[in-house]
């Protein structure tokens, strides 16, 4: 059994790394669909049929009496992304209860990196664009794991398991920070009565799932009512998704003093909803959020010289990796734990650059900060796309240069000399640690 690591990025357990690999495969497919939806949106918004795109975006659907007469764009942002954040809530709780975040020795690195990756780009944005659009400070603080994994899939790099796990855990903590920022800083007109009313269906949902009742005809109506009441309260409705995810139990029910062999309810829901989130919710959100009329070279030049856009690009391409690397380096120094053998700081730099691929949540925060269909929001979209693509290209170049070394590390990680089905590295107490002095 692997004990508390004496190095940064030493492997976890065989079961945990296998679970992470399974999640990343699903997110990679979702990342491909996300990229496709983004391309379709940009083409649609910049061709002769662009008027149909913006008309569809502004089409209202839903009952006005229930405050749900939202535009198609609002349904995509407030509704579909609630599914994304529900899955993020499930994953975050799973990490804290049974994953890497349960162990303080392992949690400290991705948590510190996530905070560093939030603080530095926010400060850099404020230095550059604080006088023009201070409300946009949170736009360059998010990481889009699906987009980042799509980049890894394209360049076909053999990224070691420890770095893949770090990237996923960093993105999960990023999601928690993002939803906290949205709830605290982007709630303009709070209606406490509606928020209090939302506690009733949320509490009933919690009671049912804690009793392992998974009937969709009970849980889905309660989830929808919770979402609609949170939406009416003025708090962004995606917060409801995280709260519902936190309510689901992680551990399997004990049967006569023994653990049930079946997966816990959180894992069951994650298997059910992750494909919907990655394959439908996020790509459709991208389809209705990434479309922006660029206006040719003059429009592109105007957008990219806007201090808001410059601040976002600088935050994603420079601030995000600098924050992640600085926090990780300080953690290494304070805990006196070197990098796992075979890894170097340039390897972590490539992963940190992937952290600058901030797409889905960055677009959402941009709409909340500046309002949809505004000139500033258009510049935000162009900047998020430009910054994310730049960070992705830089990360791809750096990681591809190290791919031969990554292949050797992966082969070492997969070696199973005793042929028991579990790689030897997971049966050592401190795998790949340097020898003690």
Q: Can you describe what's shown?
A:
- Belongs to the NhaA Na(+)/H(+) (TC 2.A.33) antiporter family.
- It catalyses: Na(+)(in) + 2 H(+)(out) = Na(+)(out) + 2 H(+)(in).
- It is found in: Cell inner membrane; Cell membrane.
- The protein has a single domain (16-186, 236-427), classed as Up-down Bundle (Na+/H+ antiporter like fold).
- 68% of the residues lie in helices and 2% in strands.
- Mean pLDDT is 85; it is low at 429-437.
- It is built from 16 helices and 4 strands.
- It starts with 13 loop residues before the first helix and ends in a 23-residue tail after the last helix.
- The protein has helices spanning 14-45, 50-57, 72-98, 104-129, 145-155, 161-185, 192-210, 216-233, 238-247, 265-289, 296-304, 307-335, 345-354, 360-370, 375-401, 403-414; strands at residues 60-61, 70-71, 254-255, 258-259.
- With 437 residues, the chain is mainly α.
- Strand 3 and strand 4 form a beta hairpin.
- Helix 1 (14-45) packs across helix 5 (145-155), helix 1 (14-45) runs parallel beside helix 10 (265-289) and helix 12 packs antiparallel against helix 13 (345-354).
- The strands form 2 sheets. Strands 1-2 form a two-stranded antiparallel sheet. A two-stranded antiparallel ribbon has the order 3-4.
């Amino acid at each position: 059994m692997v004990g508390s690591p004496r190095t940064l990025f030493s492997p976890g357990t065989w079961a945990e790394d296998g679970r992470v690999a399974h999640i990343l495969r699903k997110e990679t497919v979702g990342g491909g669909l996300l990229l496709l939806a983004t391309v379709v949106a940009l083409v649609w918004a910049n061709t002769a049929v662009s008027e149909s795109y913006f008309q569809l975006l502004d089409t209202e659907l839903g009952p006005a009496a229930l405050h749900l007469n939202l535009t198609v764009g609002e349904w995509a942002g407030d509704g579909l992304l609630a599914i994304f954040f529900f899955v993020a809530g499930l994953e975050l709780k799973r990490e804290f209860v049974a994953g890497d975040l349960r162990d303080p020795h392992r949690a400290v690195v991705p948590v510190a990196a996530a905070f560093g990756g939030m603080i530095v780009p926010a400060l850099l944005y404020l230095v550059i664009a604080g006088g023009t659009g201070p409300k946009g400070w949170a736009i360059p603080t998010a990481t889009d794991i699906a987009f980042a994994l799509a980049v890894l899939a394209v360049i076909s790099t053999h990224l070691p398991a420890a770095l893949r796990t770090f990237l996923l855990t960093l993105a999960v903590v990023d999601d928690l920070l993002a939803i906290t920022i949205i709830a605290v800083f982007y709630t303009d007109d709070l209606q406490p009565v509606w928020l209090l009313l939302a506690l009733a269906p949320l509490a009933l949902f919690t009671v049912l799932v804690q009793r392992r009742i998974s009937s969709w005809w009970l849980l889905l109506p309660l989830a929808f009512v919770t979402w609609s009441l949170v939406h009416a309260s003025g708090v962004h409705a995606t917060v409801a998704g995280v709260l519902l995810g936190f309510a689901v139990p992680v551990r399997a029910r004990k049967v006569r003093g023994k653990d049930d062999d079946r997966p816990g309810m959180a894992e069951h829901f994650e298997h059910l909803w992750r494909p919907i989130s990655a394959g439908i919710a996020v790509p459709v959100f991208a389809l209705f959020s990434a479309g922006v009329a660029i206006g040719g070279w003059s429009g592109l030049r105007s957008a990219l010289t806007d201090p808001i856009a410059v601040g976002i690009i600088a935050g994603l391409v420079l601030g995000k990796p600098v924050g992640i690397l600085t926090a990780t380096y300080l953690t290494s120094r304070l805990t006196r734990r070197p990098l796992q053998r075979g890894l170097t700081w340039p390897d972590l730099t490539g992963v940190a650059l992937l952290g600058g691929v901030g797409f889905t949540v960055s677009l959402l925060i941009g709409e909340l900060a500046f309002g949809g269909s505004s000139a500033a929001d258009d510049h935000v979209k162009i900047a998020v796309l430009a910054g994310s693509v730049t960070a992705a290209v830089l990360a791809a170049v750096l990681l591809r240069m190290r791919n031969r070394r990554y292949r050797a590390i992966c082969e070492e990680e997969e070696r199973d000399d005793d042929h028991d089905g579990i790689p030897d590295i997971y049966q050592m107490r401190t795998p790949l640690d340097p020898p003690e002095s």
